[in-house]
Design goal:
alpha/beta; six-stranded parallel beta sheet; two-stranded antiparallel sheet; 15 helices; binds zinc ion
């Protein structure tokens, strides 16, 4: 008997383009969101996006509350929750890079309120996905929240973000290749639930990005357009899958472990990119997909070595040998790499010297 059922939760309004920041109020009205919003932002995004949007709201007779957060911590999530309760708001808006959006997402999940995403940097796929996580001491708090009701990505703002944030977003997308390989492996070996549609979309997204790598250049507004569309598409793949599997495999475990071992040494996307080179090698040996991934990263100026990440070789080895244990997600790392094998893959792929 066929008795499968599935929920696919997607953002309802996705608006990408030059100057679309000024359409945010219209987007909110279109969603019939009533009452007072709480803007969750950080210092620079506040200036370039949150304050101007607040002015639009005030002109329309709505008085938004604002929380400015400095760091992505669990305490920041709690602060946002408290503010939402005392200020009597009815929905949340994350305005900023990954941090502000992750925090708004996690707080809105806890509060059972809708939230919207206004990314000011195209730095990772969390700006559209339903996944959120923040470090909390030695662990990470991670939630499967709802995806944003709306994503308003102003390419003019995104193009002015530091260039390395854009290349990090690209690298996060390129890592879909290995995430999907891990997903297929886990499906075959462990009967993990798999969606061919989601896998194909995630891979195709990475492919389109790589094919357009020539248009991903500093100062080119088109870059943020290409990257943002790819991040949206990757987020949709995760919504279809109902998990982060299409965009997160062993390369993400490697990056999460680096976050613990060398906090804030490198950007999320850059770490997963380097992880992806190595896990592609583990999947594919000498056949060359790892070289394609390395070349693609190289062509957009994303790091391909430990040195370029600013992380020492030993930390890379430690992460490779321990990261399989940080969450219950079967990948090519299986029950863990031993140190010699980890050194071998890191050397062969040129990640360490
Ligand atoms: Zn990622």
């Amino acid at each position: 008997m066929f008795d499968k059922s599935t929920w696919i939760r997607l953002p309802r309004n996705v608006v990408v383009g030059k100057g679309v920041r000024s359409q945010f109020l219209e987007v909110v009205e279109d969603l019939h969101l009533q009452g007072r919003p709480l803007f969750v932002t950080s210092p620079t995004p506040r200036e370039v996006a949150a304050d101007p949007i607040a002015a639009d709201f005030e002109a329309a007779g709505i008085d938004p509350a604002t929380v400015t957060i400095e760091r992505a911590t669990f305490e920041a999530v709690e602060e946002v929750i408290e503010t939402a309760e005392t200020e009597d708001v009815s929905y949340l808006v994350g305005i900023g890079g990954g941090k502000a959006i992750d925090i708004a997402k996690m707080a809105s999940h806890h509060l059972n309120m809708g939230f919207c995403s206004v990314p000011t940097a195209a730095s990772h796929d969390g700006i559209v996905s339903n996944r959120g996580s923040v470090p909390d001491g030695d662990t990470r708090h991670s939630v499967a929240a709802e995806p944003p009701l709306a994503v308003v990505a102003d390419t003019e703002i995104l193009a002015n973000a530091p260039w390395e944030l854009t290349t990090a977003g690209c690298a996060d997308i390129i890592s879909n290749y290995t995430a999907v390989m891990d997903w297929r492996l886990a499906h075959r070996l462990k009967d993990v639930e798999y969606s061919g549609f989601a896998a194909a979309l995630a891979e195709m997204t990475a492919e389109i990005l790589v094919d357009n790598a020539d248009h991903v250049r500093p100062g080119l507004e088109e870059s943020s357009w290409i990257v943002t569309k790819a991040l949206v598409s990757s987020g949709v793949a995760m919504s279809i899958a109902g998990s982060s599997r299409p965009a997160s495999g062993a390369e993400h475990l490697f990056s999460h472990q680096l976050d613990r071992l060398a906090p804030e040494a490198a950007l999320h996307g850059h770490q997963v990119g380097v992880g992806s080179i190595m896990t592609a090698y583990l999947h594919d040996g000498e056949r060359g997909i790892w070289q394609d991934i390395r070349n693609a990263l190289d062509s957009i100026d994303a790091p391909t070595t430990a040195d370029e990440l600013g992380i020492d070789d030993e930390t890379v080895i430690e992460s490779l040998t321990t990261c399989h244990a940080i969450r219950d997600r079967y990948t090519i790392l299986g029950d863990g790499m031993n140190e010699r094998a980890a050194r071998e893959v890191a050397r062969k792929t040129g990640v360490i010297s």
